[in-house]
């Protein structure tokens, strides 16, 4: 029997494991994409996804059934990623730099082998993108990933980040402006 997300959330709030498992299966990939966009590391993103659903399971009783469960889970996921990034920043000694992790991970995701000149240029762009994303504040990175990688509307980004829509729009604008400036030497000026 197919259930809508609201009904699944209500059942999950009663600790119905099968319904909660359906929520995890339905939303885990989207939460992973957001977490990966923010942490730039596959293992860290998996940790964030796991923490997101653990927090969601514990907080299911507070879920308001009129809210969208996807937006609620995004908010928990973004908060988990922000917490993780803050923790990682405090314990940064001895860890691999973000840009080398992102470059290595993105190389692993490539499907075809480009020509050698494109490899060099693409590698430089990937490094610059990883560095540029790393220079954004965690909130800017979250807003940018949600808007441009996940395709969330401004209003949904605002709900997830728990800010007003104009603040979300401004945060996305700042992130785009910073990225354009940082990438201009590599890709040329934008219009």
CATH class of the domain at 1-95: Mainly Alpha
CATH topology of the domain at 1-95: Rna Polymerase Sigma Factor, Chain: A
Element string (H = helix, E = strand):
HHHHHHHHH
Strand content: under 5%
Overall geometric form: globular
Class based on secondary structure composition and strand pairing: mainly alpha
Q: Looking at this structure, what is the CATH superfamily of the domain at 1-95?
A: RNA polymerase sigma factor, region 2, helix turn helix motif
Amino-to-carboxy terminus distance:
52 Å
Percent helix, as a range, is: over 70%
Poorly predicted parts: 98-112
Q: Give the integer mean of the pLDDT values.
A: 78
Number of strands: 0
Largest sheet: none
Report the total helices. Answer: 9
Radius of gyration: 18 Å
CATH architecture of the domain at 1-95: Orthogonal Bundle
Describe this structure in words.
This protein is mainly α and 191 residues long. The protein has a domain at 1-95: Rna Polymerase Sigma Factor, Chain: A. It has helices at 5-13, 17-39, 42-59, 69-90, 98-109, 116-135, 138-149, 154-161, 165-187. The longest helix is centred in the N-terminal third of the chain and has 23 residues, at 17-39. It is globular and about 55 Å long. The termini are far apart. Residues 98-112 have low confidence and may be disordered.
